[in-house]
């Protein structure tokens, strides 16, 4: 994520844009090249929000670039519309509306299928532009005669004609584009987009409607593309049909990868390298069409050796130079070992958990069954947990514990049966809705936002509770979300990670990652918290620490905990339910369970051999 120093990036951008006409000619850049770079840069601002920030690789941006461009050009050349800026804005709106419709279809799939759908859609647009709509778009001739903007101020009028004069208009558009994009990526929506890129499953599970946010990113990218497409027509006094070609989409992706994704300025830097090399290799070195060969080699080298692109490489160099070397996991472990010698800071008391007026079991499952083909993972489970209770669930491997949790949190739908949470039937709801209602879980295998820091991880989870599952506060500062800082700080203290708040997840020790996993669930302020093997994979020392932590978290909460470490679990919970072969074998106090012969038999026959006494 971009550092949030107020207005630093905006100021540097303004300085750069003002200085460009004085500096770049000395480096061999013609004004027209600079203008084309800015148009690509503006196009790429939206694309980077989609690709770099949200992780959605689209090869179909030419569809929106062309749509915006041709709508604007048509209005200005054929429809007698005289206002260039107005036409650009209408083109942008048309592209955004098209993006909304296409997004509804394309975002039904993820990964490679999403990318393939976008390729197909771009091809369809290219065909439609050339054939059925050629009366409007000029077909292969494009639309010539696109005017440049002029503004009548009453006492005088300003004309942006060409070269450095037109640069002023395009640079202003780019600058406004940067300001808007920065606002978006610094908003709560921007933070959630990064979370979706890192771990869509967890972003959904903590209570965000990720489809809505992905669609938002798609529409934003389409809007930027549409405006940039319009500017291309203005810049060339001609709207070229090749704006719609696959090459345009591919060039945008490559420029973004060269410059650095997730930086907003990557596409601008990439376009600079691309167009400079094009001019330099073609004209100065006389390579002709072979220039693309050199570009291809440059691209491969950059992608192999600078995974973050040019800006990512510069950022790494800066970090090295300023001595902010990343600490290795071993160092962290060593430091932790030292820290545990000292008295550990007392974890904060659990925040008062609001209980609704509803009285009765907080959770009641009846006849819960899950079949996978012929295999019955859970069979006819009746299960009830009271308000404030701490319940343990044990059972040999394959007994159906995780499946049971997945059904309770509505991650998977039961084959039959009913789940009632706080008196409300939640069977068939989505995991996001159930989390919003106050029921969530921590995962057996960590599901963290790996590209973010500890604080940013908890922020994502807290935002779901504070803002609901979907809100379009695109221009709001993250820091202005009421109660966010308090909730994040509170959770940091609760899971004992305050010291590591600004550490990237990738640099955390395993035990810390497990605590963050629990923290993600806690930050949504659940009234019922399910913990799926919270002690899994921990060293004995980490287990002792985590059990202490869980005890402090448990105060005032209702929790259900699955774990194989029975000594620890029996120390924590008041009642235990034993599952075997998908059924409830028995429920009782830890003492009753320890001495139950049926349980001992289940374990003697199971993987664990024997139950700990
Ligand atoms: P536990 O958590 O107690 O180890 P699980 O709930 O993971 O048990 O699994 C219970 C049974 O259901 C196992 O036999 C497992 O192989 C099966 N199972 C779990 N998930 C699936 C799935 N997605 N498809 C098919 N079988 C599954």
Key terms:
single chain; 613 residues; alpha/beta; Rossmann fold; six-stranded mixed sheet; four-stranded antiparallel sheet; elongated; binds adenosine-5'-diphosphate
Structural summary, described in words:
The chain has helices at residues 8-23, 31-53, 61-77, 84-106, 111-130, 134-137, 163-186, 188-198, 200-205, 210-236, 246-259, 266-284, 291-305, 309-321, 329-341, 401-408, 431-437, 454-467, 484-494, 510-522, 540-554, 566-572, 590-595, 597-605, and strands at residues 143-144, 150-152, 157-159, 238-239, 363-372, 375-385, 390-394, 416-421, 424-425, 439-442, 528-532, 558-562, 575-580, 583-588. It is α/β, with parallel strands linked by helices. It has 2 domains: 31-267, no CATH class; 350-604, Rossmann fold, CATH 3.40.50. The strands form 4 sheets. A 6-stranded mixed beta sheet has the order 10-11-12-7-13-14, with helices on both faces. The protein has a 4-stranded antiparallel beta sheet with strand order 6-5-8-9, covered by helices on one side. Strands 1-4 form a two-stranded antiparallel sheet. Strand 5 (363-372) and strand 6 form a beta hairpin. The protein is elongated, with a radius of gyration of 29 Å. 46% of the residues are buried. The structure holds adenosine-5'-diphosphate.
């Amino acid at each position: 994520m971009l550092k949030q120093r107020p207005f630093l990036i905006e100021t540097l951008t303004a300085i750069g844009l003002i200085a460009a006409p004085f500096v770049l000619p000395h480096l061999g850049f013609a004004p027209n090249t600079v203008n084309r770079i800015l148009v690509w840069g503006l196009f790429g601002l939206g694309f980077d929000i989609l690709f770099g920030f949200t992780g959605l690789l689209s090869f179909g941006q030419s569809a929106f670039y062309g749509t915006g461009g041709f709508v604007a050009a048509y209005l200005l050349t054929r429809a007698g519309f005289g206002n260039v800026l107005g036409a650009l804005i209408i083109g942008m709106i048309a592209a955004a509306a098209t993006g909304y419709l296409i997004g509804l279809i394309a975002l039904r799939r993820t990964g490679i299928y999403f990318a393939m759908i976008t390729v197909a859609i771009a091809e369809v647009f290219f065909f439609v532009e050339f054939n059925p709509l050629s009366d409007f778009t000029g077909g292969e001739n494009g639309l010539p005669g696109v005017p440049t903007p002029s503004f009548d101020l009453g006492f005088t009028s300003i004309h942006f004609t060409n070269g450095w004069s037109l640069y002023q208009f395009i640079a202003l558009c780019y600058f406004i584009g940067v300001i808007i994009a920065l606002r978006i990526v610094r908003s709560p929506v921007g933070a959630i987009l990064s979370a979706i890129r890192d771990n869509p499953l967890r972003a959904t599970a903590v209570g965000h409607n990720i489809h809505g946010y992905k669609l938002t990113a798609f529409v934003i990218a389409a809007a930027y593309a549409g405006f940039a497409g319009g500017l291309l027509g203005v810049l060339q006094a001609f709207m070229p049909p090749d704006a719609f070609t696959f090459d345009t989409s591919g060039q945008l992706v490559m420029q973004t990868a060269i410059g650095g994704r997730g930086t907003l300025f990557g596409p601008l830097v990439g376009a600079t390298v691309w167009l400079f090399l094009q001019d330099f290799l073609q004209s100065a070195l006389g390579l002709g069409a072979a220039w693309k060969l050199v570009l291809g080699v440059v691209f491969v080298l950059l992608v192999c050796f600078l995974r973050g692109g040019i800006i990512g490489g510069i950022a790494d160099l800066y970090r090295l130079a300023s001595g902010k070397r990343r600490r290795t996991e071993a160092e962290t472990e060593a430091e932790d070992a030292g820290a545990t010698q000292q008295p550990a800071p007392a974890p904060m008391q659990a925040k008062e958990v609001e209980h609704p007026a509803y009285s009765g079991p907080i959770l009641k499952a009846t006849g819960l069954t899950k079949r996978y083909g012929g295999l019955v993972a859970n069979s006819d489970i009746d299960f009830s947990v009271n308000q404030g209770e701490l319940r343990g669930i044990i059972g040999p491997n394959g007994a159906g514990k995780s499946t049971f949790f997945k059904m309770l949190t509505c991650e998977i739908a039961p084959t039959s049966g009913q789940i009632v949470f706080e008196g409300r039937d939640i069977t068939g709801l989505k995991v996001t809705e159930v989390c919003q209602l106050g029921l969530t879980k921590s995962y057996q295998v960590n599901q963290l936002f790996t590209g973010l820091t500890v604080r940013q991880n908890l922020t994502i989870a807290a935002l779901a509770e504070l803002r609901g599952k979907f809100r379009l506060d695109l221009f709001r500062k993250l820091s202005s979300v009421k109660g966010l800082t308090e909730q994040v700080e509170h959770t940091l203290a609760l899971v004992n990670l305050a010291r590591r708040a600004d550490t990237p997840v990738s640099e955390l020790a395993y035990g810390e990652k497990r605590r963050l996993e629990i923290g993600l669930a806690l930050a949504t302020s659940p009234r019922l918290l399910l913990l799926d093997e919270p002690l899994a994979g921990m060293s004995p020392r980490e287990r002792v620490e985590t059990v202490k932590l869980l005890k402090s978290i448990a105060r005032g909460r209702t929790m259900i905990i699955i774990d194989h470490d029975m000594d620890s679990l029996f120390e924590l919970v008041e009642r235990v339910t034993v599952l075997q072969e998908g059924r409830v074998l028995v429920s009782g106090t830890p003492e009753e369970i320890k001495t139950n012969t049926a349980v001992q038999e289940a374990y003697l026959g199971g993987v664990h051999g024997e139950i700990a006494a």
